[in-house]
Amino acid sequence: MPQATARYRHLFALPGARAFTAGNLLARLPMGMFSVSAVMMIAGTRDSYALAGAVVATGLAATALVAPWTARLIDRHGQARIALPATLVAALGGLALVLCARQGAPDWTLFAAYAATATTPNIGGMARARWAHLLKGDPAALHTANSFEQAADELCFMLGPVLAAFLCGTLFPEAGTLTGVLLLVTGMALFTAQRSTEPPLQPSATPTPPPYRAPGMPALLAVCLAMGAVFGSLEVVTLAFADEQGHGTAAGAVLALQAGGSFAAGLLYGALKPGGSAERRYRWCLAAMAALLTLPLLAASLTGSLVLLAGALLVSGMATAPTMITNMTLVQERTPEGRLNEGMTLAVTGLLGGIALGSAAGGWTAEHVSATAGYGVPVAAAVTALLIAVTARAYALSRRAPTPAPAGVPRTG
């Protein structure tokens, strides 16, 4: 174990690493707060969950469109020049949302204000780009850094909703959004101030292709879409299941266990020295994810116990972080040079799109069939992700296979 912790100590011994990580974590925590805060604020001031859900869905759609564009500007002009101004625009959108909700402005203003928050840069992608710059030529250390970043994602999405619900519920409906805006601006200012660790611009003499056209990237992005469907459906179905059991207030804690399992697995995965290629590990991680996601389905259908379901979610979450870590490693390897932020942001955009699809599919199944049957949706999504990865690998191998020489013609080379 001392050798394992030494891997993380090595990371943060690098000059500037602790400072940009502190800003990174401060700016990342609101990512798990904004949706819950917006729902609670709008539902509390307008007495309409339908309106709140529609506003948040519009914000996700806007993010899917705007985030890759913001990332492209960051790759071209640098993190400091673009990320902080883009964050300030997003912060103004958050403050406008608070003002419109508080003052009873027309409903369309809520949509417009929340859509403005889509300019928020992908702080996780920028942090991974810094690690890739600092650890160039050291794949083992980069694996540990990617594992830490994924664990940070899980921690923020585990603590963010809890903090948002606490602030909105105990103080006032706008408290979660206001706190999130403050943390986002402060964290991004601290992060972008660390110029010594910022990746240098890499001007190219010849235009590079968009990341989504790079070899192997379409399949990775399709897997991200399927994995997002896992996360979106699992959240909605668990909320519905807990409500059916009469323990709706416990749903947040149950979902936090799933994120907690992923957080612990991510840190452990980063402390281990990876064996074999990331390509090979990827398929095994996806297979493990699909297999472990059957546990919540079995717990819900065979026992109906929320306690056993919580334990099943904890165990099933342990495959999430290793899968996402390996996915991001492959995204980094396959993204054209100089467009790393854009490539990783496209992966996140795929996840967001999948979350929206999974939420819709899980909600429909829970309402029209049962919440228990809804746990089949994340299993199906995980199996789909595995099939995409396996099929893409088989196709790539077939393209590399040498073409048989015609009869009577000797093979050269």
TrEMBL record:
Asked if Membrane is a keyword of the record, the answer is yes
The entry's protein name is Transport protein
Q: Write out the transmembrane intervals.
A: 25-43, 49-70, 82-105, 162-185, 219-242, 248-272, 284-302, 308-331, 343-366, 372-392
Question: Which GO molecular-function terms appear in the entry?
Answer: transmembrane transporter activity
Question: Which controlled-vocabulary keywords does the entry list?
Answer: Membrane, Transmembrane, Transmembrane helix
Q: Give the residue range of the signal peptide.
A: none
